Amino acid sequence: MVNFAQSFLANLANPAMSKSLFEAGTAIGSIPGQLKQKQLEEDRKKAFASATPLERYNLAIAQAVKGNDLAAAAKLTAARDKYASEQQVRGDTLLTDIVAAQMLAGGLSEVPTEITHKNEKVEVPPRLSKDVLEELNKLQTAKDARELATQSQVLHENYDTYIKNNPQLLEQNPMLAKTYAKIIDPDSKMLRTERANGIKALIGMVDADRSSRKEAKFGDAAIKVRVQQLVDRIEARGSKTWFWQGNDMADALGDMSDSEKNTFLDQATLYIKQNPKATDQDIIDYGMSGMKKKIKGQEQSEAITQNEEELATTRESNIQGVMKELGVSREEAVAIIRQIQLEATRSNRMNNFR
Questions:
Q1: How far apart are CA 114 and CA 103, in angstroms?
Q2: Is the distance from CB of 225 to CB of 88 less than 8 angstroms?
Q3: Beta carbons of 270 and 280 less than 8 angstroms apart
Q4: In angstroms, what CA-CA distances link 122 with 36, 115, 126?
Q5: Residue 106: half-sphere exposure toward Cβ, Cα within 13 Å
C-alpha cells in the first residue's frame, strides 16, 4: 500500500499524468451538466411530439426569435397564420353543415345558439347564421328535387336553371347530355322509371359540381380570414413593421372609409393568393398600394428612412477615404473617424464656454 501511494505521488509530478487527471476530473465534473442538457432535450422533444400543430409553430417561432433569426420567425409566423385561418374556415364549414343538417331533420327555421353533436354541447357563433341558412336552403332544395323526381318525374327548376347556366357540365358528360335532352323534350317517350333515374343522375351531377366549387371557395375564405386576422392585430397593437412608425397603420385603417378599407382588404387578399407564404409586412405593403399617403406618419417615416440611408452612404464614403489615404484597415479607419468626431465635439463645447 505504501509503495502504491509513493508511486502515485511520484506520478503527480509527471506533467502528462497531471494533465490526464485534470482532463478526467473535468470530464467527470461536466457529467451532471450533460445529463441535465440531455434531459432538457428529451423534455423538449416530448413537448413537441404532444403539441398541436399550432403549438408546434409557436415553439418553432420562439426558437427562431431566441436565435435572433428574425427572417425565419417571420416566415414561420406567415405559415402559422395560413394554417390557423385554414383550420378556422374548415371548422366553420363543418359546423355549418352539421347545424344545417340538424335543422333540416328537425324542421327548424331559426339557427340555434348551440347544438349537441356526438354527445357534446357545441356553441354556434352568430357570425355563422347566414351561412347556416344558405346551407339549409340548399339541403331543402336538394330534398325537394329528389322527392319531385320520385313522385312526379320532373326536374326541379333550381337544378334545371343550374344546368342551363353551366353548359360545360353536359359537354363533359355526353350520356347525361342525351338524358337531359330527352327529359326536357315534351314529346319524348321515356318510361317513368327511366325518367326518374335520369333526373336523379342529373341532380347528382349538379350536387357534385356544387360541392367541388364549395371546396374551391374554401381557399378564398381562408385567405379572407387571414387578412381579417391581420387587420385585427394591427388595430389592437399597431403595425409594428419597419415601414411605419408606431400606430400609423392602425390609425390609417381607423380613418379609412368603407370603400378604402375594402380596397385594402381586396389588395391584401390578392397578394396572399399570389404569395401564400407572404409575411405581414409584405401583405400590408401591397394592401396599401396607392394609398400610402393616407398614413399620417408616412411622409415622416419615408424622410427618416431616406435620411438614414444618406448618412450611411456618407459614413461609408468617409471610411473608404481614410483607408485609401492612410493605408489602414477598416477597423483602424473607423477608430480614426470616431476620434476626429470626439475632438470636434470637444472643441465645439469649449467654444460654447468662451
A1: 12
A2: yes
A3: no
A4: 44, 5, 13
A5: 13
C-alpha cell at position 137: 336552403
Report pLDDT for 298.
Answer: 46
* Residues with Cβ within 8 Å of residue 261, at least 6 apart in sequence: 253
Indicate the pTM of the whole model.
0.52
Q: Which pLDDT value is given to residue 139?
A: 92
Cα–Cα dist 172/101, whole Å: 31
Phi, psi dihedral angles at 116 (to 5 degrees) = -110, 120
Residues 6 or more apart whose Cβ sits within 8 Å of residue 130: none
Among candidates 329, 260, 259, 339, which has minimal Cα distance to 293? 260
Helical H segments across 51-128, by residue range? 53-66, 70-106
CA distance 164 to 181: 12
pLDDT: is 310 or 78 the higher one? Answer: 78
> Coil, helix or strand for 148?
helix
> Is the pLDDT assigned to residue 181 strictly greater than 80?
yes
- Which range among 17-26, 106-115, 245-254 has the greatest average pLDDT? 106-115
